[in-house]
Amino acid sequence: MESLDYCKWALQSVSRSFALTIPLVEEALLAPIMVGYLEARILDTFEDDIGKRHVSLEERVHAMNAIMEILERPDSQMAKRKAKELAREAEDWVQDEHYRGLVKNFDKVLTVHRSLDERTKASMVRWMHEMNAGMQKYLQQPVYSFEDLNEYCYFVAGTPSGFLTELIRTRAKKLTPKASQVLQDNERDFGLFLQKVNIIRDFREDILQNEKIFWPGYLFDKHQLEPQ
Fold this sequence. Notes:
With 228 residues, the chain is mostly helical. Helix content is 77%, strand content 0%. The chain is globular, with a radius of gyration of 18 Å. 30% of the residues are buried.
């Protein structure tokens, strides 16, 4: 399967809502948006996949930093070597079969990544660095306040929203000035809203399966509640 065709197939495998909307964008935007989404999904997989076994904080951080090293130098032999190492790690401990398959085919995603123009690649990596730093912050501390919740949601969904907004505003041919301004004005809120919907939807599952709580912990303390 050709790399671009694989990315299109993988998008349908690992996404729900974005698998419906990304294929509808202008042709010139399809590859960068799709690759940006899949690479963010790979980073997210190493951040929060429940794991086929216990996965230490150190293992997660090491894998996430390796992803960023790959994206900084996608044409290097180091990138090829580390992509293979991540594929082996995914086979060992990523539980979700669709996400595991995506990581094992990181090389195909990278092939499309390499074909993008330098400006797009630089933008993508810049936003993903911010995402990576924020994800690692909340791997090491809980979401306790609503301020924490907003910050966490920004890191995991606001940064992709920022990349998409930047890409669309600078590259889309059919975007009116008014629509461009609307995108800019709502860039952050869109990401926060999307992630909060996901958190609310998965609230029960996160507690039971992942032993994670993303809703502010102070509310449970205030009302003397034990999540279960």
